[in-house]
Amino acid sequence: MNADEPAEGTPVGRRVVLGMLGLGVAGAAVGGALQQKVNRALAPVGEIGNVLPAAGGFRYYTVTGSVKRYSAADWRMTVDGLVNKPRTFGMADLARLRQTVLDKDFQCVTGWRVPDVRWVGVALPDLLDAVGVSPAAKAVRFTSFDGTYTESLTLEQARRRDVLVATQMEGGAISHDHGGPVRLYVAPMYGYKSLKWLGGIELTDRVRPGYWEDRGYDVDAWVGRSNGRDDAPT
């Protein structure tokens, strides 16, 4: 998925996902101590068959294969839809808003996890306050500048302070392969919700399932929950 998650343009069935989760559990049992000592190697992945439980490192995925690169100076993001003040943000605009730091894991639905990643950016509630949310808004839709990937959250989920419009990770700028210069990070949910190459945010009147939800994934992707209930602790 475009959030450092499954395969490049290939729908992934639930049996495959459950199998990968089983591999992840096995890998954790065998090499948990070792994983903490392994460098966070950046291992590109093309197809689901190449996805293995990570040894402390990210895996790269995209649903389009090739994604246009933007520098921090060129990047822009539009926030519109059911808002009082539609606005286009550049990196300097985000830097002027309150900055939030999170030290949280990145958990892939296929079983691998990178612990204690440092994320820096604008908490989504602060960005929403900057544009003013219409009373008619019930959800938030995110679009990637890859032209294909989309994601959504309910407005209640989007107002959590552990949901970031992230501009830095691991002490530096977010690289292109990690979804930079700006990406979404949804701490309490599996990585496919953390959309890469963030290019647009739209306030909508209902949740619009994203790219992977249209292919069978849960709309509510709480880590450790399989019942889809929107009752995770805040």
Automatic annotation (TrEMBL):
The chain crosses the membrane at residues 16-34. Residues 66-212 form the Oxidoreductase molybdopterin-binding domain. It comes from the Bacteria. SUPFAM superfamilies: Oxidoreductase molybdopterin-binding domain. Keywords: Membrane, Transmembrane, Transmembrane helix. Signal peptide: none annotated. It holds the Pfam family Oxidored_molyb. This is Molybdopterin-dependent oxidoreductase.
